Amino acid sequence: MSLKNLSIALILTLSAELLWRQPLADATSFSERPEVQQFVADMASKHGFDMDSLTSLFARITPRPSVAKTMTGQVVKPPSWARYRGNFVNPWRISHGVSFWNENAEALMRARRIYGVPEEVIVAIIGVETRYGSYPLPYPVLDTLATLAFDYPRRGEFFRGELEQYLLLMREEGRDPLSLRGSFAGAMGIPQFMPSSYRTYAVDFDGDGHRDLWDNTTDAIGSVANYLKTYGWEAGQPIAMRAYLQPDAASDLLTGTLKPEHSVEELAARGVKPAGFLAPATHAALLAVDVEDGREYWLGMSNFYAITRYNRNLFYALAVYQLSHEIRLARMVSLN
Q1: Can 265 be counted among the known catalytic residues?
Q2: Which terminus of the chain is more solvent-facing, meaning fewer CB atoms within 10 Å of its CB: N or C?
Q3: In this structure, are residues 193 and 223 in contact, taking their beta carbons and an 8 Å threshold?
C-alpha cells in the first residue's frame, strides 16, 4: 500500500472511530430519524408495506455500533496468508468436514448431479463460513442491517439495499424480522448469504415449501451449489493448480485480477508452468500469495473464479479450494 493510500485508510479509520464514539439514537427514537422515515415511506410506496407497522418495527431496533467497528477492522487489518490459511485449513475443519459429508451424503450427491458442484467444495464453503453450521451467529440481523444502513456512511447505500431485501424476504417467508441472527455484516444462516443473495439464490432443496438457511442443512447445500452454478461453475473442470515461474517469466501477468484472462498455452510461452496437466486452451489467472520462504504461485481457473464470486477475496477462495482437497483426501482414507 502506498503512503497516499495508507493516509487515506488512516483518515477513514479515524473518521469511523469518531463516528462510532458519537451518541447514537436509542431504540425508541430510531424510527423518528428523518432518513429512517424516508426509508419507511419508500418501502410503503415501492413494496406496499404498511407504514405504521414498519415504523413500529423500526422503533424496536437497537443500534449496534460494534458492528461498524468490526467492519472497519476488517478493512484496515488484513491477515497474512499463513494466518488466514491456518484458521480454515486445519485438522478440526477437515475431520468435521468429513463428518458433515457423511451425514449429508444424499443431499450433497444430488446437488452435484443437478448443479455440477463437487461435494467437497460445498462442504468446504460451509465449513469456512460457519464451521458446518455450528458457529454461533450473535447479531440480530435487523439491528445490524439498520445500523449499517443509517450509521455507517462508508457503505450505507449498499446496506440500505440489503435492509430492503431483508424485509422483503421476511415477508415472503412469513418470518419475524426481529427473530433472526446473523454475522456482524448481516450475512445469514449456515452458508452466510446476504439478504439479496438469499432472495436470489436460495433454493427449497428438500421440497418442504420454505427456503430455510438457518436450520435446514439440505436447503443450505442446494443453495450454495445453485449460487456457484449461477456464477459460472463448470462441472468436471479444474479449479486451481500450483504454478512455477521460470526466471524470465513475464512479470506483467501478476495484475491482481482474479478473472482467468490468459490461456495456459499463452502462460507457458511467457514462463509460467502449471504443476500438472492442463489443456492448453484452458484459461487461468496467475495468482500469488506470500509464504514464509518467499512467494507461492497458483493458477486459478473459471471454477476458482466462481468461488471468488461467493467472497471476492483471493485468500478465501484459495482456503476453500485447499480445504476441499484435504476433506476429499481424508474421506477417501476413512472409507478404505
Answers
A1: no
A2: C
A3: yes
